């Protein structure tokens, strides 16, 4: 969290937000796409990787989600940072441990209602009245790769030697009303669908490169849940 605001911005004019992420791909996404975009509004977004394992004689390992009590503890620690105007999360709904509030019995008739329910449960459990307005829980529907299906063409153009698979990526996207609804089953999750077409896909290697090629405008146009979250951050 030692990064500095862009040149020309004074410390007093910059609003700092902390984004709790579960992996290096999401960390790069924040740095490469969200930071430049939000900085134009005087907002400096800092990704904070979840700590998955603490080693007494060495540095902490980062990436992936620890058990929910640890996540709760880490987010509350970030909320106590008085220099931050907001703390938010960027975690995949797919694969989210069942111990997260509301995850084992989400209420609603569609994906958007269910994820809103779980986010609200997390807000109540972690934030409650103590951090009202400062904590903004956000879960990606259904995982990071869902955002990439905002543009099947850019997936094919970014992955090496995958032009012949463009039709496959387009067919996957066409099977759902939106990229965010590509689903929550072990074989149907967005990353599994990409790998079924292109087995060489590696999230840390290819994920942010594809997202950067797509750009925030295309992503938010296709992904309303993501766009709502970004709008909240912009409004800070």
Give structural notes.
The mean pLDDT is 90. The chain has helices at 24-39, 68-79, 111-127, 144-148, 152-158, 166-174, 190-197, 203-214, 216-222, 224-234; strands at residues 15-21, 43-49, 51-53, 61-62, 84-92, 135-136, 139-140. 44% of the residues lie in helices and 14% in strands. It has 236 residues and is α/β, with parallel strands linked by helices. α1 runs parallel beside α8 (203-214). The longest helix is centred in the middle third of the chain and has 17 residues, at 111-127. The protein has two domains: 11-143 and 217-234, Rossmann fold (3-Layer(aba) Sandwich), CATH 3.40.50; 144-214. The chain is built from ten helices and seven strands. Strands 1, 2, 5, 6 and 7 form a five-stranded parallel beta sheet that branches. The chain has a two-stranded antiparallel ribbon with strand order 3-4. The chain is globular.
Topology at a glance:
Layout: E1 15-21, H1 24-39, E2 43-49, E3 51-53, E4 61-62, H2 68-79, E5 84-92, H3 111-127, E6 135-136, E7 139-140, H4 144-148, H5 152-158, H6 166-174, H7 190-197, H8 203-214, H9 216-222, H10 224-234
Parallel strand pairs: 1-2, 1-5, 5-6, 5-7
Antiparallel strand pairs: 3-4
* C-alpha-based Rg, rounded: 18 Å
Based on the coordinates given, report the CATH architecture of the largest domain. 3-Layer(aba) Sandwich
Q: Write down the CATH topology of the largest domain.
A: Rossmann fold
Instruction: Give the strand content.
Output: 5-15%
Give the mean pLDDT.
90
Number of helical elements: 10
Number of domains: 2
Order of helical and strand elements: EHEEEHEHEEHHHHHHH
Poorly predicted runs of 5 or more residues: none
In which range does the helix fraction lie? 40-55%
Mind telling me the CATH class of the largest domain? Alpha Beta
